[in-house]
Hints:
Distance between the termini: 36 Å
CATH architecture: Sandwich
Order of helices and strands: HEEEEEEEEE
Strand content: over 45%
Low-confidence stretches: 1-32
Number of domains: 1
Shape: globular
CATH class: Mainly Beta
Amino acid sequence: xxxxxxxxxxxxxxxxxxxxxxxxxxxxxxxxxxxxxxxxxxxxxxxxxxxxxxxxxxxxxxxxxxxxxxxxxxxxxxxxxxxxxxxxxxxxxxxxxxxxxxxxxxxxxxxxxxxxxxxxxx
Length: 122
């Protein structure tokens, strides 16, 4: 618990430290959009199979309630593994997505046939 609080405090301090500065016109615009999405991975299923998010940085949380390992892979990003979760584990990964329709699946051998879904990004 202390470690988590310390990490949160450190992250907040770093974020605030970046807020200062002059008006030199060289600052990049702040990132916008994104989302936090959650999916349950069980024994050969994802729930839900249809997800939506706003374009930008998307945080993907996989709650693995199954007896096997599972991952969350996005086909249109060259089969990028966004997050991997061992049995009984909840894990989170992030990915930056543009507007469009994406196919997500579990890449563990034999799982894709029943563990595939659609992610709509607007």
